[in-house]
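This week, study the protein below.
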Amino acid sequence: MNVSAQESSVALSAAVRAGTFIRKSLGKVKTTAYKGEINIVTDVDRSAEGIIVRSIQRAFPDHSIFSEEMGRDERDGEFTWIIDPLDGTTNFVRSFPFFCVSIALEQSGEILLGVIYDPMREELFFSRKGEGAFLNRKRIRVSRISRLSEGFLSTGFAYGVRTAKNKNISNFSRFLKRSLAIRRAGSAALDLSYVACGRFDGFWEMELHPWDCAAGILLVKEAGGKVSQFNGKKFDLRCKEMLASNGLIHDQMVRVLSR
């Protein structure tokens, strides 16, 4: 199925509107709560989500919504919008400028459209299935680094890192010894965007949710990269372990994660 111009336009407009609101709200958070021991949500998350959801529901009342704060609605529409209104909330709360809006459109488990907007840099990442990936309307491609030892990588740690048995620390240690460098900036959606445009060569993380990665998956694939589980098998949104790369170092990363 080809994504319509209307769906693309609504997604892009909603992402920019929500991102602009987030940028203007920086340093002005009124309420902060915890969904878990270190998992923060603010009034800005919820307001940004409202901006996006209302835009989509007005344009596509039969479509389903699956968003980080509101969860999944009860409609059984053929199409589902997967939304993270503010990926990197902890960064936002502390005025660390690495956060974004992420919106994806799914049909029967297949991601058709992905939008990620970084309001601080005004960088708008966009992809439609089969049509490539773009940053501010300019075509982007993954990097050409072919050796893991030269790889610039990114990762993250789940909110349950304090109590989980598998905390990703051992993976981090192994990659630290085998790559050029690793960054942990706190937004999986932006990490995936950076893989898509060649800033990062690879990314891995555990315990991701669909809203964390749906849009970024399509960006990476449409930019010529590869996405899989840690063992190299096909990734879908129900998987809890993701590996994304430029494709050239993918098998090398699989070998490290399989140890």
